[in-house]
Design brief:
globular, 17 helices, mainly alpha, 0% strand
Length: 394
C-alpha cells in the first residue's frame, strides 16, 4: 500500500473530484471540499505560488468584467448570486497546482469511471420507474433522469467528454475501453439529448476519417442501428426527435406551439432583442434574467411558459451577448481562441475534442449559467493544458 503523504493526498483529492463531478449533491460537494482543503494547505506549507499565468489572467479578467457589470444594475441581489456561481474562475487556478499534478491518467480514469457508474445508475433507475414502479401519471423517461442524476443534456455532455478521454488516452485495456465507450455512447442515446446525439455522430465520423480504423466505422454503424431501433420502438424517444419538425427557422416562433423546439426559438428571439438594446456592454450581471422575462411577455413573442419558468437563453453565446455585450463576447472569444491555439500548437487532441464538445453543447444550453456547467468547463479547460505538459515531461 502506498505511503500517504500530503502530495499523494492532493493527487487522490484531484481524482476523487474528477469521479464526484458526475454525481448529484452527495459526493460532488465532498470532492470539491477535499481538494480545497488539501490544495490550500499544500500551498501555504510549501509557499507554492505556481499557476498557469496566461490562463489565470484570462480567468481573472473575465471574472473582473462579470463583477464590474453588477455595478448600477437593478437586480443586484441576483447579480451577486451570478458572481458567486462564477467563483471557480478565481478558485480553480489556486486549486490546480501545476508542479503537483502527477499521473493525469488517474484523473481521466476517475472521470470516466464516475460518469460510467452514474450512467448505469440513471438507466437502471429510470428503467425501474418506467417498467416496474409504474405510476398513475406516466412521465417521459428522459425527464426522469433528473431523479437519478441531473439534467440529461449535462450528463450526456459528461459522457461525451469521457468518450473523448477514452479515445485519446490509453486508460484501460482495449476490451474495457471498447466496453466503456459503448456504455457511454448508449447513455448518450438514452439521454435523448438531441445536441448530444449530433455531437456523438460528428465525433465518430471525425475519428473514423482521421484514424482510418475500422472500429470507429463499426461504432458509427452500431450507433446508427441503435438510433433507428430506439426511434422505432420508443414512443418517448420518437416524440423528442419528432419535435425537430417544429423548427421553421431561427426567426419563426408560433406562440400557439409550446413544444421544446418552438420555445427555443422564442428564447433566441428574446435574447437577441435584449442584446440589440445593449450591444456593447450587455444588460449586465443579474439583470438579464428579468429582461428576458419582459421580452417573453411582450406582444412580439408572448411565450407564457418561458415567462413563468424564467428561462435563460439556452444558448451560451446569446447569454454572453445579452448579459455582457460585444465586449464580454470578445473576452470569452479570446479565451477560447487561446485554448484552441494552445491545443493546436501542442497537438493536444484531447483538449481540442473536449473544447469542441463544450462549444457544441453551448448552442442549445447556457452551460456557464449552472454549476454543473461552470465547474467542469473551467476545471477541465484549465487542467488539460497543464496535464499535457506533464505527460510530455515538461
Amino acid at each position: 500500500m502506498p505511503k500517504i503523504t500530503l502530495h499523494n493526498a492532493y493527487h487522490y483529492a484531484l481524482c476523487f473530484l474528477a469521479f464526484s463531478l458526475s454525481f448529484p449533491s452527495t459526493l460532488f460537494p465532498i470532492g470539491i471540499a477535499s481538494l480545497v482543503l488539501i490544495a490550500i494547505f499544500l500551498r501555504f506549507k510549501e509557499k507554492n505560488t505556481q499557476i498557469d499565468k496566461r490562463l489565470t489572467l484570462f480567468y481573472v479578467v473575465i471574472f473582473a468584467y462579470i463583477a464590474l457589470r453588477v455595478i448600477g444594475n437593478e437586480d443586484v441581489r441576483y447579480g451577486i448570486r451570478v458572481l458567486e456561481r462564477n467563483l471557480p474562475l478565481l478558485l480553480i487556478p489556486l486549486l490546480i497546482i501545476p508542479n503537483r499534478i502527477k499521473q493525469p491518467k488517474d484523473f481521466y480514469r476517475s472521470f470516466v469511471l464516475g460518469i460510467s457508474l452514474a450512467s448505469i445508475i440513471a438507466m437502471l433507475g429510470v428503467g425501474y420507474d418506467q417498467f416496474i414502479a409504474v405510476k398513475e401519471e406516466p412521465t417521459w423517461y428522459f425527464s426522469a433522469i433528473d431523479d437519478y442524476g441531473f439534467h440529461s443534456t449535462y450528463m450526456a455532455m459528461y459522457a461525451l467528454v469521457a468518450i473523448v478521454m477514452l479515445s485519446e488516452r490509453k486508460l484501460f485495456t482495449q476490451t474495457r475501453t471498447i466496453a466503456l465507450s459503448a456504455l457511454l455512447s448508449l447513455f448518450v442515446l438514452f439521454s435523448s439529448s438531441r445536441i448530444a446525439l449530433i455531437v456523438l455522430l460528428i465525433l465518430l465520423i471525425i475519428k473514423a476519417i482521421s484514424s482510418g480504423k475500422k472500429v470507429f466505422y463499426y461504432g458509427l454503424g452500431m450507433v446508427g442501428v441503435i438510433l433507428i431501433a430506439v426511434f422505432s420502438f420508443s414512443e418517448d424517444f420518437r416524440f423528442k426527435i419528432n419535435q425537430l419538425k417544429d423548427f421553421q427557422g431561427f426567426t419563426h416562433y408560433d406562440n400557439n406551439n409550446y413544444g421544446s423546439v418552438s420555445v427555443r426559438v422564442a428564447k433566441i428571439k428574446a435574447s437577441m432583442l435584449v442584446w440589440e438594446e445593449n450591444k456593447w456592454f450587455g444588460k449586465g450581471t443579474g439583470d438579464t434574467r428579468e429582461a428576458l422575462v419582459q421580452k417573453y411577455r411582450s406582444k412580439e413573442i408572448e411565450c407564457w411558459p418561458c415567462a413563468r419558468a424564467r428561462y435563460n437563453s439556452h444558448n451560451q453565446y446569446l447569454t454572453v451577448l445579452a448579459s455582457y455585450g460585444l465586449v464580454g463576447f470578445l473576452l470569452f472569444g479570446a479565451w477560447v481562441a487561446y485554448l484552441f491555439f494552445t491545443a493546436w500548437k501542442e497537438n493536444n487532441k484531447l483538449l481540442l475534442g473536449i473544447l469542441f464538445i463544450f462549444l457544441m453543447i453551448s448552442l442549445t444550453e447556457s452551460i456557464l449559467e449552472v454549476n454543473r456547467g461552470v465547474i467542469p468547463v473551467f476545471l477541465l479547460l484549465y487542467y488539460l493544458p497543464l496535464a499535457k505538459r506533464i505527460e510530455n515531461g515538461e
